[in-house]
Design a protein that fits this description.
The complex is a heterodimer. Chain A is an all-beta fold. Chain A contains no helices and 11 strands. In chain A, a hairpin with a 4-residue loop joins strand 7 and strand 8. The relative contact order of chain A is 0.35. By secondary structure, chain B is mainly beta. Helix content of chain B is 0%, strand content 49%. Chain B has no helices and 11 strands. In chain B, strands 2, 4, 5, 6, 9, 10 and 11 form a 7-stranded mixed beta sheet that branches. Chain B has a 4-stranded antiparallel beta sheet with strand order 1-3-8-7, with no helix packed on it. Chain B is globular, with a radius of gyration of 13 Å. In chain B, 35% of the residues are buried. The chains are: A mainly beta, B mainly beta. Chains A and B meet through strand 5, strand 9 and strand 10 of A and strand 5 and strand 10 of B.
C-alpha cells in the first residue's frame, strides 16, 4: 500500500527559530502535495500546497518538493507559540478517473516561548 | 458565509444503533469526502463522491454508508456493523477532477459509542 510517512515528533523549537517538518511518500505517481495544520480538537486547515519541484514561499511558510527523492518539507520561519499544532502532510494521486488524498499521521510541533 | 458545516458537533450512540452525520457545503464544490481520525492517527478515507448520485468506497468503508442526492449534501451513516465507531469524523469538499487539488474541511463530529 502506498504510504505517506512523517516523523510523529514531538518536535520542539524555541520561539523565533526555524521549524523543519519532513514527509516522504512512496507513490511515484503522486502529483500534488499539501500541508495541513491541525490544532488540538479542531479540524485540519490547509496552509500550503505544492505541485512542482523546488520551493514555494507564503509568508513565514516555505514548502519544498523533491520528486526524485520523493520528499516534501515545510519550513516555518520565526516560529510562534501559535504555530504549536500537528502538521499533516498529504499527497494526491489518481485512481482511474478519481483523485484522492492520502495523509501521513502528522508531526506534533511545540514552539516554546 | 461560504463553508462546510457538520452536525452535530458531539454525538453519543448506544451500541447497536445506527447514526447519521450531516455534512453540508455552499462552496459549489462537486466533490465531497468523509474521513475518520483516531487519536495519534492520520486521516483515513471512508467514502468519497465526485458527482451527485455517485460515490466510491475509500480505504475503510466497511460499516458505513453514504448518499449523494444533492450537490450540497453528503450524509454519512455509521451502522451497527462498524466494530469500533468511536472517532472524530471529518467531512471535506473540493473541486472535482484534475482541478480539485485542494480539499477544505468542516469542523468535524466527535462520535462516542457508550
Amino acid at each position: 500500500q502506498k504510504e505517506v510517512e512523517q516523523n510523529s515528533g514531538p518536535l520542539s523549537v524555541p520561539e523565533g527559530a526555524i521549524a523543519s517538518l519532513n514527509c516522504t511518500y512512496s507513490d511515484r505517481g503522486s502529483q500534488s502535495f499539501f500541508w495541513y495544520r491541525q490544532y488540538s480538537g479542531k479540524s485540519p486547515e490547509l496552509i500550503m500546497s505544492i505541485y512542482s519541484n523546488g520551493d514555494k514561499e507564503d509568508g513565514r511558510f516555505t514548502a519544498q518538493l523533491n520528486k526524485a527523492s520523493q520528499y516534501v518539507s515545510l519550513l516555518i520561519r520565526d516560529s510562534q507559540p501559535s504555530d504549536s499544532a500537528t502538521y499533516l502532510c498529504a499527497d494526491r494521486r489518481q485512481g482511474g478517473s478519481n483523485y484522492k488524498l492520502t495523509f501521513g499521521k502528522g508531526t506534533l510541533l511545540t514552539v516554546n516561548p | 458565509d461560504g463553508g462546510i458545516t457538520q452536525s452535530p458537533k458531539y454525538l453519543f450512540r448506544k451500541e447497536g444503533q445506527n447514526v447519521t452525520l450531516s455534512c453540508e457545503q455552499n462552496l459549489n464544490h462537486d466533490a465531497m469526502y468523509w474521513y475518520r481520525q483516531d487519536p495519534g492517527q492520520g486521516l483515513r478515507l471512508i467514502y468519497y463522491s465526485q458527482i451527485v448520485n455517485d460515490f466510491q468506497k475509500g480505504d475503510i468503508a466497511e460499516g458505513y454508508s453514504v448518499s449523494r442526492e444533492k450537490k450540497e449534501s453528503f450524509p454519512l451513516t455509521v451502522t451497527s456493523a462498524q466494530k469500533n465507531p468511536t472517532a472524530f469524523y471529518l467531512c471535506a469538499s473540493s473541486l472535482a477532477g484534475a482541478l480539485g487539488n485542494e480539499q477544505f474541511f468542516g469542523p468535524g463530529t466527535r462520535l462516542t459509542v457508550l
